[in-house]
Amino acid sequence: MTPLLNVKDLRAYYGQVQALHGLSFSLNEGSLTTLLGANGAGKTTTLRAICNMVRSTGAIEFDGKPLNNKSTESIVRFGIAHVPQGRGTFTTMTVEENLQLGAITRTDKAISSDIERMYGYFPKLKERHTQQAGTLSGGEQQMLAVARALMLRPRLMLLDEPSFGLAPLVVRDLFQILGRINRDEKVSILVVEQNAQLALELADQAYVIETGRIVMSGAAKDIAQDENVRKSYLGY
């Protein structure tokens, strides 16, 4: 089976500084994969490289098609949605306007029904659909960022630290919803996360990255049960 996303020998740079040193990994269609590691390990850079937001070399293929040298806008149109750290919602626009903007690349007539579907996953957003995004709580803004990405109807969603700055109960609720989206919408997910324990509960595949190199990979349940891996790389 051809992987949905296939990354080979990925190297990324910020100016003269090399941040990634030959990463190779793949994701199958319908999978939920987590990329774990400490701050500065290269997790965020990996997502940015997939979206061509940093200078990189190596091979990146999506559904068998090369993404190298494609613009970020073209990559989005291929069916890859990126939810960056910090959420990136348009704070002066309402919840519903943010969702409509998420569908800006689409031309079909199902946008209204898709918005209602997003409200099904995130009822709080429906309660606040006329409220400016900047006045939402941190958890609600993260929900809006995920919902807006889903409005693209992506095949793959890249999530960068979705738990950052959120209360534990909010994080657990959000991760449960991500699991539903993966199952119900058949959206493949690659999530970068420092909450290793929760990410491993959610994911079926895991990669551990350290100083720009993958040092461990395998089934998430196996990674979670490896005491040496937990102590060395996951911090719990």
TrEMBL record:
Cell division as UniProt keyword: no
Entry annotated with the keyword Transport: yes
Residue span, ABC transporter domain: 5-236
Swiss-Prot/TrEMBL keywords: Amino-acid transport, ATP-binding, Nucleotide-binding, Transport
PROSITE patterns cross-referenced by the UniProt entry: ABC_TRANSPORTER_1 (PS00211), ABC_TRANSPORTER_2 (PS50893)
One GO MF term attached to the UniProt entry: ATP binding
Family of the protein in this entry: Belongs to the ABC transporter superfamily.
Protein name: ABC transporter ATP-binding protein
